[in-house]
Write a structure and sequence with these properties.
The protein has 116 residues and is α+β, with helices and mostly antiparallel strands. Helix content is 22%, strand content 27%. The protein has one domain (8-102): Gcn5-related N-acetyltransferase (GNAT) (Aminopeptidase, 3-Layer(aba) Sandwich), CATH 3.40.630.30. It has a four-stranded mixed sheet. The chain is globular, with a radius of gyration of 15 Å.
Length: 116
Amino acid sequence: MRSGSSDAREIGYWIHADHIGKGLATESTAALTNVAFVVDGVSRVEIRCDPANVRSAAVPAKLGFTHEATLRRAGIAGDGSARDTMVWTLLVEEFPSSPAAAAELSAFDALGRRLV
């Protein structure tokens, strides 16, 4: 929960190069978005990514998130240089009509009881 609020969740993802383009990041992000809103009851979900990572930015765009801002020099790249960071958000009132809400989801607790 790097978003800084107990009423929000941040989703991050990384896909191995051998599995890029198979929809895994989109599918798992949709599922996590559902859990955040339906199970955790938060009001906001956030995704941050590097603007140069076009595939990564496509995930929240596909799921109905809003590109809220691009923070200039807000992150550190692997080589130590400053990098920009895109911030994408989805609010609880936007969730029901978003593509993320249409994802099929089954969630269970540690005892195997169905949550969703």
